[in-house]
From TrEMBL:
Keywords linked to the UniProt accession: Hydrolase, Iron, Metal-binding, Protein biosynthesis
Organism from which the protein derives: Collinsella stercoris DSM 13279
GO terms of molecular function: metal ion binding; peptide deformylase activity
Function, as annotated: Removes the formyl group from the N-terminal Met of newly synthesized proteins. Requires at least a dipeptide for an efficient rate of reaction. N-terminal L-methionine is a prerequisite for activity but the enzyme has broad specificity at other positions.
Protein name: Peptide deformylase
HAMAP family: Pep_deformylase
Gene Ontology terms describing biological process: translation
NCBIfam families recorded: pept_deformyl, PRK00150.1-3
Binding sites annotated in the UniProt record for Fe cation: C95, H138, H142
CDD domains: Pep_deformylase
Amino acid sequence: MEVNGIVLSPDPRLRQECAEVEEINGELIELVERMKDQMFENGGCGLAAPQVGQTIQLAIIDTEYSSKKDYDPYVLINPVIVEQSDNLVPSSEGCLSIPGINCEILRPDHVVVEAYNLDGDCIRYEAAGDLFCVCLQHEIDHLHGKTMFDRLTPQQRVHAMKQYQEALARGARPGETE
């Protein structure tokens, strides 16, 4: 199921290991532009290709925009976490593909990610203790078929899935949290 151009859980495309991007071409650039529009229109701070139905290793992130004027997401092609801390910290996460709820997720508080940009340059992103750090990990999870539900204990997962079903029944849309 899709709402506002966003694939919603439990769509099987969200559970797939995504293929590496082999070539940066016009088709990929068009997809990035569509993803940028979708993320902005739905008020997100990150979006992975499977969330728009494309099972390739591509994500965009912008955690600092306040309007269309300063909206300029990072494009991450084939991103890989190359370093992460052992220190796990909780943060409240939402997801455009799981609207209407937030979940408290434990994640490393420091990561280093390497990814290619649209120019084909390998860029190193380092983040610690902030939304960008969480977002990098969350979007990379999507590229490996994981959603925030997978980061919960079994008991938390049951509770979160019940909340999600209730949110969907209320008509929750991408970008809405509890």
